Amino acid sequence: MSVCVSPPLSLPISQEDVPNIALLGSGGGERAAVGMLGSLHQLAQDNLLGSLLYMCGVSGTTWCMSSLYSDPDWSLNKRCDEVIKKLKGPTVGLKKAVDWLKQWKDSDQDFTLTNFWGAFTASYFMKEMDTRRLSDDAHRNSTNPYPIYSAIELNRNKQHCTEAVWFEMTPHESGFSGLGAFVPTSCFRSQFEDGIMTEKRKEMDMVLLQGVCGSAIADRQMDTAYVGKKIWHVLFEGQDSMMLKENMNMVGGSRKVEVCECVPSQVVWCVSELMVNAEDPDPLKTWKVITTLRQLLEGHVSSKGEMLWNMDSESWKRTSLEERKKFIETVSLELILTSDSWTKDWKDQRCTCNGSIWWIVQNIFPLLIKWEWGTTCNFLFKFQDTRVPKWMADQEKIHLVDAALKMNSPYPPILRTSRKVDLIISLDFSKEDPFETVFSAKQYADELKLHFPPVKESVREEKDHPQDCYVFEGRCPEEPTIMHMPLFNLRNCKGEEEIKKEREKYTTFQLHYGVSDIEHLLKKAQDNLKNNKDRILEQILLAVKRRKNRKSVAQVFICGVKYFLSTLWEYLYFNYLRMTTFASLHS
User: Fold this and answer.
1) Which comes out higher in pLDDT, residue 566 or 2?
2) pLDDT, position 2
3) Which helix (H) or strand (E) holds 243?
4) What is the CATH number of domain 19-218+405-533?
5) At residue 567, does pLDDT exceed 60?
6) d(Cα 143, Cα 53) in Å, to the nearest integer?
7) Could you tell me which residues are beta bridge partners of residue 423?
8) How far apart are CA 72 and CA 520, in angstroms?
């Protein structure tokens, strides 16, 4: 049988000589999602998508992947264009996101901040709520590269464990790459004991998967207050807030904001006004808001919230701007984090916001205090096997979060020897050092004694001015070759200064990009792949040769074994005859 790896190669080869090629996308929030889309769009233009066997992502690139795979034939259709168009369009309505959250809260015992982050990521960044399940992709078009999503176990990562940290999820199985322990994806999140399912639970959909894979903010090194204010800003502040869009109507041909009259919505609006105007030099502007808050919240605030009543208008006027800012920040944050204390008793008949704002304030913001992420049943609970560490078998629950917190590129699933990957195309969308992922992967491979090509330490010196492509060649057929491609480089940027500006412009933790920013970033990513098309083709051809060499080595080994066995048989047989003859002569 003969097959062609991809049209540009025009190289008929036997099926067993077709190399296993993996495309890796690093993390980086929306920067990574857009960069991955641009890269895939160019690979499709160059007829190279068909050469990929695996597509692996962490963090932001998984957002891109989940959107693409909603079309079972995306690699044959124009799905990349559709996703790009959605990225430039409006966000999903707040009510739709909250309806999804309500369903999960009612049906899932492990409702955490990950659920909220999934709804936020899907509706705000990717702008679609895709409720299909990952296991649904198991029976879809095999022309698509096989998707592998990555996360890590949070507690094990804190303990610097290697084997039981990296968690991969595919349409067929999910589990720990280092341990080689997996469960069918359709059963993932269900309750197990000693390998036997004791309770079938709801499988995660793609919205929740995005929450798990993209939850870099779960890292406790980030200030809870910072995260709380960020979420508040996205939901309730500014011209692009979800609350504003939810309550904005066309009145007389112009856009008019109509905030619901229910108390929670009014409080939310007041807190947002305080935070927006905290640096206003006019103290009367914020004092009016404080007065309104005092009226709304009387008898419904915690101890720190009592600060609202400890200030009078004259004292407020005499207070310095810096002191007012500190006061507003303290009161606002306290109200955000203790929202249950001032919402639980209200049943406001004037509510016209369908409860979305109220529900978020009551059910999501209290979770910031608990700070629980990615909780799910451990399928290895009480599993009796020496290969499973005891501390892992003792845990009834595990906590899965963004894999970029350990390694910002999904090397572990691809380095598994069973996948026999020949060529890795690594797209690095990291904000800073574009080589950190390669060295982290090498360390991981060394610790688990996996094949990995040599990487010169000297490339670190180019982290501020990288080339567009680096090739780290495998030294033997079992060792993959890696093509490493930094997003911003000396070829698509005019020098080190422009690279620095691009990195500063496209930060990881920022609100979604505007249309012009998306188009600019798409072009940067597309140019990288377009500029390196010939090098990719060259490495594919070399991978074919390595495949053949691997087969030749195996054939030589088999022939050697056969020769040895036949020689051994002859020796034993003739020795037996000699001994038999000798015995008969002496009988």
Assistant:
1) 566
2) 35
3) helix 242-246
4) 3.40.1090.10
5) no
6) 9
7) 21, 481
8) 28
DSSP string, 7-30: TTT--EEEGGG---EEEEE---HH
Q: How far apart are CA 123 and CA 129, in angstroms?
A: 6
Q: Are 438 and 426 in contact (CB under 8 A)?
A: yes
| 555's tokens | 């054939």
Lowest mean per-residue pLDDT among 7-11, 13-17, 371-375: 7-11
148 is written with which tokens? Answer: 């592998």
- Contact between 450 and 415 under an 8 Å Cβ cutoff? The reply is yes
CB-based contact 542:21 (threshold 8 Å) = no
Closest to 409 (Cα-Cα) out of 434, 386, 432: 434
Using the CB atoms, write b or e for 564-584: b if 16+ within 10 Å.
eeeeeeeeeeeeeeeeeeeee
Q: What is the pLDDT of residue 569?
A: 59
pLDDT band, very low/low/confident/very high, at 151 (cuts 50, 70, 90): very high
Phi first, then psi, for residue 507 (nearest 5°) are -80, 165
Report the alpha-carbon distance of residue 19 to residue 477 in Å, rounded: 11
* Distance (Å) of CA 469 to CA 399, 452, 494: 36, 18, 16
Q: Please name the residues in contact with 354: beta carbons below 8 A apart, sequence gap of 6 or more.
A: 95
| Structural tokens at position 537 | 């083709």
Residue 550 has pLDDT above 80, yes or no: no
Q: Give the separation between CA 177 and CA 123, rounded to whole angstroms.
A: 30
Query: CA-CA distance, 208 to 202, in Å (whole number)?
Result: 11
Confidence of residue 308 (pLDDT cuts 50, 70, 90): confident
To the nearest whole percent, how much of the chain has pLDDT over 90? 51
Is residue 176 within 8 A of residue 167, CB to CB? The reply is: yes
Contact 439, 455 (CB under 8 A): yes
Q: Would you give the DSSP letter of residue 257? A: E
21 pairs with which residues across the strands? Answer: 423
CA-CA distance, 547 to 562, in Å (whole number)? 22
Which phi-psi region, left, alpha or beta, contains residue 266 (left: φ > 0; alpha: ψ -120 to 50)? alpha
Q: Judge whether 525 and 31 are in contact, CB under 8 Å.
A: no
Neighbours of 543 (CB within 10 A): 24
pTM for this one?
0.84
Provide the residue ranges of all domains of the chain, joining segments of one domain with +.
19-218+405-533, 224-370
